[in-house]
Amino acid sequence: MPSKVGVVPVTARGPVARSWIVWGVSLVILMGAFLLFAYVIGWPTTPDRCVNEQCFCEYFSRADIENGVKGIRQGTNTWSNLYAIFTSLFVAWGLGRDRASGSAPNVMRSADPIADLYVFVVLFLGLGSMWFHASIAKYVSWIDGLSMYTFMAYLVFYTLNRSLVRTGVNAGTRGKIFWGGYILTAGAFAAAGAAGVDSVILILTLVVAYMVLEFRFAGFIADPRARSYWLIGIAAIVIATIFWVLSRTGGPLCDPHSFFQPHGLLWHTLAGVTATMMYLYWRRENVADGQ
Question: From residue 273, how far is each of 17, 122, 235, 269 by CA, in Å?
Fold first, then answer.
């Protein structure tokens, strides 16, 4: 019997522990480096260009930046990003569980390292943002942008990979296209953002590329549960964007001295919800109910 379109052939039980190793090693490196700069080395003393706009509402001391004072500039906007430890842990657990079952109806359930990369991407989406809010410093704030572009570029190239599976492109060629295109795109967009290109324009470019691939080439996954996950993810990022706009400096939800900082507590965490929902959406491709 011919296989379903997009099904990844099962060759062996996937490496169950690999997703956990990626999660653990990534967490140690990212948090270790962050804490080293925050409390041992100290941050660069050149303020980020956003200082004239107060950098997403929450109060910080410009003098602390210029004097190289160690510590965290924006507490709520920084520590709220720890949500990513748990969203990425969920993805790592899901990958390990699916691999233990020995079934691989799609790339996100398979032994393909592309799936393991998503564990890092979801983790870095939050922990990368911490560098900006903790330092408000020019020479490390680009890491925040990099974390966004690694996520957005993954949406684009995972969806491109899905479309190539549907057209019968072999795994080796698909892997080269994914890894080469993904690394170059994430790096190029991060460099453009660091050079001053508006991040909204860059992100919208990737969103459009993703939507075209999703609905024109890859095929929106027909499974009802998959579509529910996708819609929840889209709703979460739309709501997050509304709070992002309303809580900017001078906005109606901005109180620089309040613990309740919508940018951190809502924009950050709802972005994590979207990342998790995308994993659940991809995981449902070509699976039967109950899987």
Answer: 24, 10, 10, 6
- Angle in degrees, 0-180, between the axes of helices 83-101 and 113-135, rounded to the nearest 10: 170
Token digits of residue 231: 């819609």
SS (H, E, C) 191-224: HHHHCCCCHHHHHHHHHHHHHHHHHHHHCCCCCH
Please tell me what DSSP assigns to residue 47: B
Q: State the Cα torsion 110-158-203-94 to the nearest 10°.
A: -10
For 227, counting Cβ atoms within 10 Å of its Cβ (0-12 exposed, 13-18 middle, 19+ buried), the class is middle
pLDDT band at 54 (very low <50, low <70, confident <90, very high): confident
Burial of 108 (0-12, 13-18, 19+ CB in 10 A): buried
β-partners of residue 158 are: none
3-state SS, residue 137? strand
pLDDT score at 11: 40
Amino acid letter for position 39: Y
Grouping H, G, I as helix, E, B as strand and the rest as coil, residue 173 is helix
pTM above 0.70, yes or no: yes
Assess contact for 248 and 54: CB atoms under 8 A: no
Please give the radius of gyration of the chain, using alpha carbons only, rounded to the nearest integer: 20
The Cα 184–Cα 138 span in angstroms is 23
| Residues 202-212 pLDDT 10s | 999 999 999 99
Mean of per-residue pLDDT scores for the chain: 93
